[in-house]
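Researcher: Next sequence.
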Amino acid sequence: MIKQLVRMVSFPLAFAMLSFAPSLFAAEQADVILHNGKVITVDAKFSIAQAVALKGNRILAVGTNDDVLKTRGDKTEMVDLQGKVVMPGLIDSHTHAASAAMTEFDHPIPQMETIADVLAYVKSRADVLEDGEWILLSQVFITRLKEQRYPTRAELDAAAPKNPVVFRTGPDASLNSLALQLSGIDKNFKIPEGARGKIERDPETGEPTGIIRDGGQYIKSKSPKSKPVTAKDRRNQMELLFKDYNSVGLTMHCERSVSAGMLEDYQALDKEGRLTVRTALSYRISENDPLDKIAEEVRRVAKHPLTSAEGMLRIIGVKFFLDGGMLTGSAYMLKPWGVSKIYAITDPTWRGSLFIPPDKLTPMVRSVVENNLQFTAHTVGDGAVHTLLDAYEEVNRSIPVRDTHPCICHSNFMSKEAVEKAARLGVVMDIQPAWLYLDTRTLVDHFGYDRLRYFQPLRSLFEAGAIAGGGSDHMQKIGSLRSNNPYDPFLGMWTTVTRKAKWYAGRLHPEEAMSSEPMIKFYTINNAYVLRAEKQVGSLEPGKLADLIVLDTDLLTCPDDAIRDAKVLRTYVDGKLVFERK
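Model: Next structure:
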């Protein structure tokens, strides 16, 4: 009779019945039971339990000690939590892990907080490289340097007079004289009509200052000599990084800009059983391609077997770049940025870079939605956010977009109208609190406090019913706090509830601070929804995948400042113990 009953119900429902009546399914014996703890389930009622049982890669039961212990068998591993907290595994909705893992493969890169640090690194590279070899430094953002500016052309010249130097901060860069010369960028250089990019010039002489915005295509740099890299090297580095993710409680992440080569590496790690973090993939398609080619690429991605996979690796959608960055002075804003020494902006009408015109963006979104993929784009400025929401709204008139979980990556600058429209359309956002922590000082200095009213408006989004999840935008280095965008989720959580920032006195619009329950959802069930995985992970419920962590800190009751110091004691992914703090 029991076997017949199990056949008649779905797998999750069968396990749900088990959670209420474990004695009914006495034959189902747990592989692991964690008991005598505080289990924060993050289910629909945000229930608190005492114990959780795992069977294979699924959660078998959640409930009181007495009920869950009824699933104990002769071979069940028992873990006495001694009052410690159990939570769903934490999720990072925005990483660039594959490239970040390789950042220091050739040589270590020191932390840089000042222009002097930058110049010392450039000089150290000039000392070991041959004359004429390029020195490339990426993602050291001017907002995070104490001087809050780019290194000048003259400073880079002095640090490396015989080497071309590119200090790249994303779509923008600062070049020394030799790099400008080798790239053919001089007083007479002109960007072709209708092409992207902007060359900053001295207003008196017309000479390039060295600052180039959205102009990477004009820089003729070559990669300096470095250690040869094999596929084995890449995969070993990725495995090392993912173990570090596990150590801070990350059980799932989204690789937000996947190339064909990265996909091969992920598939190889998965096949070899070395992937210890569940991975969602956003496949990168160039927004510069013509619409017919973009549509063809979208259809190709939609047919990939990983779009319907149920294991550790799954393609959820595609990724484009819609605007520049707030860290570089090129995010597309509703109002002009304003003349700025910090960002080296001399044009008072400058609103930033919009890479996809609206008449192209809307058919791109439609193509993705029609193929049941998640559309997302790097979208930082409020002008870009409004542009993408308008495209979603237009497509939604004929095809409902909500079921594809249409996304806005970053969504830093918003407005009251944008918050309301995102909630109404079912548009989700992956937001990086570490940007608030690291960049508030510079943003306030440039924009003023009032213009940042809807900067990462998390409370407003939650109260409006919109779904936002937390990410890191991890781009460089292995190390949760030494990475250029820290991927320690507890620093992110602390930032969401305090709105405090590095080198900044006070709090940035504390009316947007979250309380503890939304803070936890931000990195668990909300992120699961953002990554189209809410039916599999994000909460501790019978039948869901067994991704969970054990913490030394109760995030629901501890003082705010204790959140950032919380430590993970155990991490389980797919029912396997992948990290244990010794």
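Model: Residues 231-247 form the longest helix (17 residues). The chain has three domains: 2-83, 92-97+229-321+356-577, 107-218.
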